[in-house]
Amino acid sequence: MARVNANPDRFNKMEYTRLLKKAKGDSRSQRSFAMEAGISVPHMCKMLNGVFDVPPTQTTLRKIATVAVGGVTYAQLMKVCGYDVASEEKEFYPSIYMTPSQPKKITEPLREFRSLPEGTHAELYDYQLHYLKTPSVSQVRLCRDIYHDINNYISRTRKNYEIFESPFHVFLNEDDAKCLIPSICVVSDQKSIQQDGYYGAPDLVIDVIGHGNEEEVYGSKLFKYRENGVGEYIIVDQLRKVVFDYDFRRKKTHVFHMPCAVPVQLFNGVFNIRIH
Fold first, then answer.
1. Topology of the domain comprising 8-97
2. In the CATH hierarchy, which fold is given to the domain comprising 131-275?
3. What is the DSSP secondary structure assignment for residue 267, as one 8-state letter?
4. How many CB atoms lie within 10 A of CB 103?
5. Sheet arrangement for strand 193-194
6. What would the pLDDT profile of 40-50 be if each residue is shown by its tens digit?
7. Could you read off the pLDDT of 190-230 as tens digits, one per residue?
8. 163 has which bridge partners?
């Protein structure tokens, strides 16, 4: 995919600085904000104080949006920084530039969710059913390789962990009706494993995404996992050839470009996932 460049004439530095301060919030220091976003402290301080003239990169904006408060979104940051996407590129950014199809709104979430026909691949969050698209062959192959890498490692050295692959239900918060189907998840609490899925926050969640499900991952799932206690969330984006590793425990974000070896923070970085 071609790199999308910002239009300097449309870069609103004053508005960007205002949004950045709003995204930081009143309770976080500049240092904490920078560390949570995975951005160097000096660079973050310069941006918050308006000591810069060049629009931030898209990667920087995505990091900021991931830990933003105050309702600040990636789309808002992109807009004030002068970024635009040509028509042939818009398909890569549906969560920002395209209107998504509306999922089914339901009044009794868990009851209706559990009444779905067996074999239906659907997720439940925001009191809506979200039907999953069939993964591509490349997604299936990559998930299989990642699954085997992790399974081989934990079966030898981390036997208190167990790994599951899609379709496997993760009930993040039953009271708030959240049930997701990650590509892969690793858990250690055996008591939370039931016949219909896992009840609670997994230690590690991995989603391999391709064309068609970027919106759900970047727009909703990332925040659902962070808000509900997941320890680490890895997004493998096959379209952009990039991997985002969100270490929620340590409030750090790591970015890798495929092919790469991703150190799993759950295992203190001593084990790498090979992603091609």
1. 434 Repressor (Amino-terminal Domain) (1.10.260)
2. tt1808, chain A (3.90.1570)
3. G
4. 17
5. 104-105, 128-131, 122-125, 178-180, 170-173, 197-199, 193-194
6. 899 999 999 99
7. 999 999 999 999 999 999 998 666 666 776 788 889 889 99
8. 186
